[in-house]
């Protein structure tokens, strides 16, 4: 067996049903319903711009809301150890603003006219307005955590934001010719590759898989991890508790992106093989937490992300 334990995947993990019953997201979060409503009010107030047309763009972003998965992680991670407070709400708002900014910028880079089945900001308002709106969101997010008491959370978030940019650039270079994100990578032996997706002959199998994990960790998982860390830090969790929720957040984030890749039809071989592994790793971390409503919600959220259809 190699260091990743990959040789058993095709004979076990890909064909053995391990997923539990899936709840809807609305059935998972009743334990933070009050806190989520507080977040929505705070987020809407923070998104208000002083001038037009920026305020119209911010309202457009508000109207096309997503699952709020990242704020939910912040709130649940805080409530796992104590009660949600104003710092928790600031942290949750920060991550949602950063996430919104990256989506807006991504649509400009990808020349995408759709986001969540609606016209993207880029399509609705133009490239220049979209870039400026993304920059505006990032600046306002940083202002949220400008108080000295928020320094630890801000440092965590800014470090993650830098890593996200690195991950996106790494992925872009891969698609431009490094070619290690392909569907016909095999774990045991490398068959001949198609002319459309040549493999770098200087790279071995483990390099390919390690690079794939590095990219999805940086571009997605680290933000999920930071959501959990920020929630814990906002309620003065102990270093041991912070480390525990850090481990959960990282594995959860990788799991989330693996499922995303399967849904998008990208990196299918890697995602199929790795998703069951990270599903089990994420649930394993949760076994170390004290049973509570928040622990149960994080468990159900893990199952939801492993099985979600969109």
Describe this structure in words.
The protein is mostly helical. It has a single domain, classed as Farnesyl Diphosphate Synthase (Orthogonal Bundle), CATH 1.10.600. 68% of the residues lie in helices and 1% in strands. The chain has a two-stranded antiparallel sheet with strand order 1-2. A hairpin with a 2-residue loop joins strand 1 (114-115) and strand 2. Helix 5 (69-79) crosses helix 10 (205-234) and helix 12 runs antiparallel to helix 13. The radius of gyration is 20 Å and the shape is globular. The two termini are 34 Å apart.
Strand neighbour order, sheet with most strands: 1-2
CATH architecture: Orthogonal Bundle
| Share in β-strands | under 5%
Structural class by SSE content: mainly alpha
**Amino- and carboxy-terminal Cα gap:** 34 Å
CATH-level-4 superfamily name:
Farnesyl Diphosphate Synthase
> Poorly predicted ranges (pLDDT <50, ≥5 residues)?
1-18, 177-201
* Rg of Cα set: 20 Å
What is the structure about, briefly put?
The chain has 310 residues and is mostly helical. It has helices spanning 9-13, 25-28, 33-47, 54-63, 69-79, 86-109, 121-125, 127-144, 151-178, 205-234, 239-264, 268-286, 293-307, and strands at 114-115, 118-119.
């Amino acid at each position: 067996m190699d260091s990743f334990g990959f040789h058993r995947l095709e004979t076990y993990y890909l064909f053995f049903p391990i997923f539990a019953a899936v709840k809807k997201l609305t059935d998972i979060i009743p334990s933070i319903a009050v806190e989520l409503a507080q977040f929505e009010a705070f987020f809407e107030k923070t998104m208000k711009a002083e001038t037009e047309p920026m305020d119209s763009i911010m309202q457009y972003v508000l109207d096309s809301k997503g699952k709020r998965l990242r704020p939910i992680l912040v709130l649940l991670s805080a409530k796992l150890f104590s009660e949600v407070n104003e710092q928790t709400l600031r942290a949750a708002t920060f991550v949602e603003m950063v996430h919104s900014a990256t989506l807006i910028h991504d649509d400009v880079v990808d020349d995408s006219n759709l986001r969540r089945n609606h016209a993207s900001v880029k399509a609705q308002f133009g490239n220049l307005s979209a870039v400026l709106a993304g920059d505006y969101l990032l600046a306002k997010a940083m202002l949220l955590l400008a108080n000295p008491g928020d320094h630890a959370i801000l440092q965590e978030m800014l470090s993650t934001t830098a890593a996200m940019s690195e991950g996106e650039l790494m992925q872009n270079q891969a698609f431009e010719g490094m070619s290690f994100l392909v569907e016909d990578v095999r774990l045991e032996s490398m068959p001949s590759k198609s002319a459309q997706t040549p493999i770098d002959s200087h790279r071995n199998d483990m390099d390919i898989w390690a690079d794939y994990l590095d990219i999805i960790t940086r571009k997605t998982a680290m933000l999920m991890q930071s959501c959990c860390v920020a929630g814990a830090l906002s309620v003065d969790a102990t270093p041991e508790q912070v480390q525990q929720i850090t481990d959960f957040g990282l594995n959860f984030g990788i799991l989330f992106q693996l499922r995303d890749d399967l849904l998008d039809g990208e990196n299918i071989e890697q995602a199929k093989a790795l998703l069951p592994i990270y599903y089990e790793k994420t649930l394993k971390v949760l076994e170390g937490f004290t049973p509570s409503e928040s622990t149960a919600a994080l468990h159900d959220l893990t199952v939801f992300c492993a099985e979600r259809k969109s």
